[in-house]
Structures are given as structure tokens and as C-alpha cells.
What we know:
- Helices cover 75% and strands 3% of the residues.
- Strand 1 (126-129) and strand 2 (132-135) form a beta hairpin.
- The longest helix has 28 residues, at 4-31.
- A two-stranded antiparallel sheet has the order 1-2.
- By secondary structure, the chain is mainly alpha-helical.
- The chain has helices at 4-31, 38-56, 60-87, 91-113, 136-158, 160-170, 172-177, 182-204, 217-231, 236-259, 265-283; strands at residues 126-129, 132-135.
- The chain has one domain (4-112, 127-283): ABC transporter involved in vitamin B12 uptake, BtuC, CATH 1.10.3470.
Amino acid sequence: xxxxxxxxxxxxxxxxxxxxxxxxxxxxxxxxxxxxxxxxxxxxxxxxxxxxxxxxxxxxxxxxxxxxxxxxxxxxxxxxxxxxxxxxxxxxxxxxxxxxxxxxxxxxxxxxxxxxxxxxxxxxxxxxxxxxxxxxxxxxxxxxxxxxxxxxxxxxxxxxxxxxxxxxxxxxxxxxxxxxxxxxxxxxxxxxxxxxxxxxxxxxxxxxxxxxxxxxxxxxxxxxxxxxxxxxxxxxxxxxxxxxxxxxxxxxxxxxxxxxxxxxxxxxxxxxxxxxxxxxxxxxxxxxxxx
Length: 291
């Protein structure tokens, strides 16, 4: 079937979308903060991969470690400097501050690296599946994203720190009464969430060989919120599964609308994603899964 290659391609890119959305979903689930700077941190992850590869020939999977470390540091600092002072004032204040920070990050990136599109290409060959030629690097990126999602879900559900995070999500006051340091949990969630976001940005560069620029984050912020809401805000596996669904809708939708003669099949595929999101939320308002 002609549609099968697009379905497989959608699963592969959807795995990366899911990984990149884990952090957004985690931060909202724990901190009740909508991280509208999500795309800016994806952009920083993408530049991390690009700079390490072009300057030191470090492959993206090794760059992912550096991306997580950078994101975790930035997440911790963002919590201390922006989220913690504003959380108690109001959600709108935090939202505006994060939006301003995203613009600041983009402009600083433009000053440092310039406004032009850059990229790199790293390939280790390809294999054929379902009529689709898949690069080993992209398939490996999808597998790494899956393993990371499962590992984070295990961490949240099975470890002491993970159970403390879930306790804070359910009742911050009750968690504090039983001895959990709520502020440390908030800071850890912010660090972990943005660390996962920058890691997603690193792996995303496997799919956009010439698409890295300071203003690339906007569309990924939109995609991230669609996926997070679809999966259930706060749910780790929900975000990953929703990422797969979104990737398939995007890829298959592009094929279907292009064969139908639409001038902008990618925009129609995005429109279809929103329609499906609305239908799912009408049937299941909390999203596919819960934390």
C-alpha cells in the first residue's frame, strides 16, 4: 500500500515528537505551569547537536547527553529565576514571563549564531521496511526516544523520588506534611522537564538537516501543546503515545491531502490534527492517559 511508508515515517518522527513533549507534560503536571518557552529550549538542543557535530564531530546520540545536562541546568535556573517568584502571584504572570524569556532566548541565539538556517547531515546507511527507505540514524533516534520515555515512566512510578513527584502532583500540602521537600521536587521537575525538551531538540536534528535557526521553536511549541493535551497533561506515556499519533496523522495526512490536490497539504494535516484532538477530548476530556 502507498500509505504504509507514510505510516511508518509518521511513527518514527512521532517518537521524537513524543520525547520532546515529555518535558512539557511533566512540568505542567507537577508545577501547573504551561511552558510556552518549550520551543526555545528545543532550539537550544538543536544548536547543541549542530555545534558539537560541526566543531568536534560528536554524533547526535552523544550530543543528547550534553543536551540533557544543558537543559537540566537551564531548567533549574528558570525555576529559581522565573517560575518560583511568580507561581504564587498568578499563572498569567508566569505565562507572560516564560513567553518573554522564549523571545529573549531566540534573540540571543540570533546574535550569537546569526539568523540563517544551518544544519548538518549524519547518516550510517539505511534499510528498507514496508517500501520505505529508513536511515539507521533516524530509526535509532526513535528507539532512543522510546527507551527514554519508558525509563522516565519507570522512574516516576517505581522510585522514591518519582513517588514523591506524584504525591506533590496529588496534594502539595499533604506531601509537605509527610516530609517531602516540595520546593526541591518542583526544581527537580523543572530541570528534568527542560532536560528532556533539549534532548528532544538534539534528536530532532536527525530529521531537519537544514532547518536549525533561532526562530524554529514556534511551531514546535504549538505541536508540543497539541500532543501534551491529547496525551493527558502530566502523563509521561500519554505524551509519548500522543506523539506517535500526531506523527502518523501529520505524515499520512500530508500524503492524503497531497494526492487530493491541496496546495498546502502540510497545513491541512495540521488542521486534521486539531480536529482529531477536539474529537478525542470530547470523548475523553482528560486526554488519553493520566500521570
